[in-house]
Each structure stands twice: as structure tokens, then as C-alpha cells.
Amino acid sequence: MKALSLSLFCALVAVSSAAFGQGGDGAAAEALFQEAERLMTAKRYDEACAKFEESNRIDPGVGVLLHLADCHEKAGRLATAWATFQLAIPPARKGGQIDRAEVAAKRVAALAPRLPKLVLKSGSAPPPGLVVERSGSELSSASLGVPLPIDPGRHVLTVRAPGYEAATVELVAEEGKTIEVVLPALAKKPEPAPEQRGAGAVPPPDGASPAVEWGGQHTAGIVLAAAGLVGVGVGAGFGAKTLADWGEVEDRCDTSGPTIVCDAEGAERADAAATSGWVSTAAFAAGGALLATGAIVFFTAPWLGAEESDVRVTALPVFGAGELGVLVHGTY
Fold it and tell me: Which value, in Å, is the radius of gyration of the alpha carbons in the chain?
């Protein structure tokens, strides 16, 4: 009886190629179909099944589905073959292909007792939104307790639920056997940390030092201090020039008397030395004031979790009769 059924199956699917060309890219579907048959003869079932699937995608037909189901069975994917034979029955009956529908139904019945079955159970009430991922498909909590046909072999289940850490379960399904799997209890994800002051503030782990935030006030302090260093450098440069000018003044002027008597060049050098000395003093004073202000601005800025301020600092040197310094104005 089994040999007769197999012969009838082969006879029915052999005429499937005549149906190609009725829709889609018939030439491509036919080429894929013929290549799949060649691979089946060579017992390269995985490659053959992929070609049958693509052929059916391009130009669906009952004959291709029957070939595909047979291919899955020979590859050991019993549950996939069982489901594919079932898919072929409705279109076969609708198209008046009663013989093909009967063959598919017989193959379904023959595969049924060989199917491995998976029964998922939950040790406690499943969390809302529970999903079990298996072989690229998703099962909800409605699948719990139902014997589900599964292909023989090793499987990895991934259990997920919103707000919970995912967990995995590995199992090996055997032909004709039912395996029960109790889903692991999922651990809740840690609560998100409350919002802290400051953009991007994240609480440090226990025992760790808190993150240091660099704000605008720190930047302003560095800028002021850098300007102060420039001022000190300018003061040092003019101070060196003053010493050089006074050296020439001593060579060209008579300083032994109560008054200094200089030639024309000496008088010019004396004026230059006086000017350089004044500029040097002013630059040193302004630079020192800027350095001090930059240090105050920098070290008074908030560090830990502090809300960054919109800081604007301006510093202007002040020169005048009997007056030398720096005017600092800022908003914090």
C-alpha cells in the first residue's frame, strides 16, 4: 500500500511542470524546479528544498508544494513537511485536483505519529507580553500547554517579555516523542535611575567615584588664565627690553652728577626704557590679575552633578593716571 501511495505521488507531481507559465516568471520557476529535482536525485536535500521554495514563491502551484513537502521529509524536517503537505490540500481541492489532495492528506496522516511534539509550560503566571522565539517564529502565552509539532534535532528557545531580561532554553527533539519544557522565570530588568541634574548625568556604581562634569565656568576660567599668562609673557618681554635700553643709557649718559646728562641717542634710549618699563609693569599687573581671576572662576565652578550654567566672563585692562588693573564682569 505504501509503494502504491508513493507511486501515485510521483505520478501526480511529475505533471507539475505543465502548470508553470500560468503566472509570475514561469521560465525562472521552471528552471528552479528542474534544478531542485536534480539536487533531489543527488540527495542534496537542503539545497533542493531552497530551490523548490523559490520556485513556488515565483509561481505558486500545488505540484511544487508537494515536491517541497517531500523534500523536507527526506531532509528530516518532519514537522515542516507535515505542515507543507497540509498547505497543499486546500488549493488542490479548490482547483479540482482531488487526487493530489488525497495524496497530500495521506502523507499528512503518515507523518502525524512520527512528529516530535513540544509542550511549553510556565511554572508561574507568565508576565504580560511573553514571547517564545523558536526557529524564527514567535509564540505567545496562548501556546502554553498545546503540543506543538517540531522538527527533530536541537533547538534553542528564547523567552522574552517587556521589562524582563531574556532567557534561553536548549532542547533536543526526537522523532515520535513529546518533550515538555518549563519556561524559566524571567528576572525583572533593573529600574532606570531617576533623572539627575545635569545633561547625561549617570549615577556611579557602588563604591565608584562620581563622574566629574566640566562646565562652561571651567572653560571661562581656563580662558582667563591663558590670557593672564599671555600678559605675564608680554610683561617679561618688555622688562627685558627695558633692561637692555637702560644698559645703553648708562653708556651714553653721565649719571655721576645730580642730574643725568645724555647725548641725543642716550636721551632717546632713556625715553624708550621708560616706556618699556611702564608697559612691562602694566602687562605684569594685568596678566597677574587675569591669572588670579581665572583661578577664582575655575575653582569656584560646580563639579559633581551640577547644572551647567550659561557663563559669560569678560576682562578688560584698566589704564589711567595712577590707576592700573583689570575689570572683570561675568554672569553665572
Answer: 45
